[in-house]
Structure formats: structure tokens, C-alpha cells
């Protein structure tokens, strides 16, 4: 994957926001006058695009065979945008009520160049997001609790998470003497699958890596003693470290 291109998190962000995901072929691009294109990021130009629908990848709203929309594109040193005429693109958009041929992109840059690989990645993300058992949306940390076991070095930290849906979600970090801590996550009432944390570039990973805070709220740690509180905090840092950073390259404004 191109290090400067959209990341898994970028595409997941766009897919979650879009009521429609469309494959289209650009037919015409017209630059919008700068005074009529407020809010652009530096180095970007706004374009009025006419495109032909190639496929509706996700969404139920009616769309026409011909589409129009506004998109912001990077300009080169001469102030020119990339020539996308006759090129296939992926559009992450919303329908405009009463105008089946008009789309509103979910962000100014929510047009991505189409490739087989890009479409496959989008379809994989959408399949998980739209499945009945899709992981719930994590909004924060409600509580941390470390409880030591009967043996030295034995114990368990429970990290209870807040979710947008109000559903249960938790992370469990388990300690056994002589072994590194093992952890897992549950996005339901079920027990976490210890030792099988989410793999990178999955929606489960995205929910945690991209939405857990760097530090839990000060009063969230309800462990009994000082050492227990330290262990719970250390386990939280272990989880964040193993998840790794949530990298984004697209301006999502």
C-alpha cells in the first residue's frame, strides 16, 4: 500500500459516513472559481465533476446514470489538478433528496481513484460494517479494574468501554506467572477471547486503535490499592501499544 495513500482508517471513516458508495467514471471537470469555493485546504482546488455511474457498491438511494458532484483536488506547482477524465473513481457520498443525479461527498476529498485492490478493500470493510454482528462503536473508557490472583504475578484487568449504542464492550488483560500478559476484547456480553487480540486493519482493530483515548479518565481506575491501580494503567498502555497507532492521511474535514 502506498504510504501516502488512504489508510485502512481513512477508508473505514469514509465508509461509515457514506450512505452511498459508487464506482463512477469521470467525464468532465470544471474548476470552481476560488471566491465560490470557501473552506478549501491549502493547495486544493474545488471542481464540479460530471461522471457516469459504473456500479452502486453500497446504498439504497436511487441514483442516475449521470452524476454531478463537487470535489476538492490537490493542485500542482502550476495550479493544475490531476487529469482524471475517463478515469474510474470511488465516491463516498450522500444522495441529494429529489435530485437522483446529484451527490454530496461526505468530505471534500471523498473521491478516491479506483483500482481492483481499492474496491476489494472497500467491499471488505463494508461487509463487516453492515453485518448484523458488526463491532459496536467505542466512545471511551468507563472503568478499569485490576484484581490480583491467588499466586504472585497472577491477576486480571477488566477495561469496561463506553459505546455509542449503549451495548456492552470490554477488554480483558490476563496475567499468569512467568508469561507475558495476554489480552482480548469482547464487543458483546460474551467473555473476551484472551490471547487473540484484533488483527491490524480489521474493523475490530479500528474500533479500538482509532477511538480509545490515549489515557483513560482519571477517575475510571477503580482498582483497590496503589499497586493495583498502577497495574491497571500499565495494562491499558500495553493494549494501546499492541494495537499501534491509528494512521490517517486524508483530511476528513
What does this 3D model show about the protein?
The structure is a single chain. The protein is α+β, with helices and mostly antiparallel strands and 253 residues long. It has helices spanning 8-17, 116-129, 203-209, 226-243; strands spanning 20-31, 44-58, 66-74, 88-96, 99-105, 111-113, 138-148, 155-163, 170-175, 182-186. The strands form two sheets. Strands 1, 2, 3, 4, 5 and 6 form a six-stranded antiparallel β-sheet that branches. Helix 1 packs across helix 2.
Number of strands: 10
Q: Structural class from helices and strands? A: alpha+beta
Shape verdict:
elongated
Low-confidence runs of at least 5 consecutive residues? none
Give, in order, the helices and strands. Answer: HEEEEEEHEEEEHH
Binned strand content: 25-35%
Q: Considering DSSP H and I runs of 4 or more, what fraction of the residues is helical?
A: 10-25%
- For the record, give the distance between the C-alpha atoms at the N and C termini, rounded to a whole number: 23 Å
Q: What can be said about the biggest beta sheet?
A: 6 strands, antiparallel
Rg of Cα set: 22 Å
Number of helices: 4
| Average pLDDT figure | 93
In summary, what is this structure?
This protein is α+β, with helices and mostly antiparallel strands and 253 residues long. Helices cover 19% and strands 34% of the residues. It contains 4 helices and 10 strands.
Keywords:
single chain; about 250 residues; alpha+beta; 4 helices; 10 strands
Amino acid at each position: 500500500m502506498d504510504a501516502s495513500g488512504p489508510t485502512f482508517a481513512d477508508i473505514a471513516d469514509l465508509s461509515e459516513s457514506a450512505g452511498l458508495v459508487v464506482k463512477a467514471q469521470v467525464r468532465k471537470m470544471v474548476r470552481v472559481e476560488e471566491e465560490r469555493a470557501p473552506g478549501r485546504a491549502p493547495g486544493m482546488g474545488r471542481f464540479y465533476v460530471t461522471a457516469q455511474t459504473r456500479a452502486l457498491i453500497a446504498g439504497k438511494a436511487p441514483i442516475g446514470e449521470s452524476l454531478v458532484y463537487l470535489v476538492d483536488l490537490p493542485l500542482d506547482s502550476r495550479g493544475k489538478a490531476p487529469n482524471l477524465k475517463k478515469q474510474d473513481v470511488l465516491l463516498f457520498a450522500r444522495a441529494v433528496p429529489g435530485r437522483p443525479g446529484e451527490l454530496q461527498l461526505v468530505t471534500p476529498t471523498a473521491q478516491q481513484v479506483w483500482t481492483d485492490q481499492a474496491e476489494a478493500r472497500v467491499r471488505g470493510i463494508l461487509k463487516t460494517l453492515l453485518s448484523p454482528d458488526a463491532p459496536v462503536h467505542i466512545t471511551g473508557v468507563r472503568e478499569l479494574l485490576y484484581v490480583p490472583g491467588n499466586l504472585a504475578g497472577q491477576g486480571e484487568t477488566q477495561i469496561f468501554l463506553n459505546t455509542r449504542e449503549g451495548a456492552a464492550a470490554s477488554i480483558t488483560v490476563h496475567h499468569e506467572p512467568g508469561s507475558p500478559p495476554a489480552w482480548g476484547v469482547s464487543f458483546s456480553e460474551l467473555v473476551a477471547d484472551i490471547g487473540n487480540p484484533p488483527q491490524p486493519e480489521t474493523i475490530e482493530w479500528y474500533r479500538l486503535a482509532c477511538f480509545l483515548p490515549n489515557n483513560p479518565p482519571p477517575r475510571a481506575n477503580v482498582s483497590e490499592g496503589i499497586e493495583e491501580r498502577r497495574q491497571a494503567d500499565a495494562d491499558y498502555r500495553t493494549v494501546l501499544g499492541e494495537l499501534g497507532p491509528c494512521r490517517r492521511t486524508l483530511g476528513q474535514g
